[in-house]
Amino acid sequence: MKTIVLTFIVLATMISCKKETTTLPNVEDVVSEVVTDSTNLEFDEVPAEKTITQLKEELTAKGFKTFDYVDEKTQDTILMQQYFMAFLKRGPIRTQNEEEAALIQKEHLAHLTKMYELGYADISGPFGDDGDIRGITIYNVPTLKMADSLAKADPAVKAGWLEIEVRPWWAAKGFPLR
């Protein structure tokens, strides 16, 4: 094996050291070719961002509550949207055995995943302590009734393992978490 590797290295060295005269292309010709080729490229059109007014009209038509204001510092118009924060609290029925609790947790996570995939929930997660409020889900739906209904469809709530308290919550539309 060492002989094969050594032979390969020697051959590669010999080939790379072989003198050959080549002429380099004219730089101006290469640049001209690149410019000519790039004018024929097709790019996917990036959709124009919606204006605050368009976004507000769209949300209002879907039943969402909104308002906007002008940020004094940046002079940007900020669109606020009402979301609904569901507090998932420790429920009264916590007597399930380990196997039942694991199944409830699996179904609970599947429900939250489904809410996210369907666009009803924007973010969800547990708290890091062992308090009575176990976690939150922020629902991106137009009404309290709809958020409450979606939260109560959670298998963990149906089993009494969790209880729900839903509250309206306002946030700037499109602002990311940091």
In short:
The protein is α+β, with helices and mostly antiparallel strands and 178 residues long. Helix content is 40%, strand content 24%. The relative contact order is 0.15.
Describe the structure.
By secondary structure, this protein is α+β, with helices and mostly antiparallel strands. It is 40% helix and 24% strand. It is built from six helices and five strands. The chain has helices at residues 2-17, 27-38, 52-61, 98-117, 144-152, 155-158, and strands at residues 66-70, 77-90, 121-126, 133-139, 162-172. Strands 1, 2, 3, 4 and 5 form a five-stranded antiparallel β-sheet that branches. The longest helix is centred in the middle third of the chain and has 20 residues, at 98-117. The chain is elongated and about 55 Å long. The model is unreliable at 3-41 (pLDDT under 50).
Protein traits:
178 residues; single chain; alpha+beta
Q: What does the secondary structure layout of this molecule look like, with pairings?
A:
Layout: H1 2-17, H2 27-38, H3 52-61, E1 66-70, E2 77-90, H4 98-117, E3 121-126, E4 133-139, H5 144-152, H6 155-158, E5 162-172
Antiparallel strand pairs: 1-2, 2-4, 2-5, 3-4
Strand runs, count: 5
Largest sheet: 5 strands, antiparallel
The helical percent reads 25-40%
Question: How many angstroms separate the termini?
Answer: 55 Å
Alpha-beta content class: alpha+beta
Number of helices: 6
Mass-distribution shape: elongated
**Using only CA atoms, what is the Rg?**
30 Å
Which range does the strand content fall in?
Answer: 15-25%
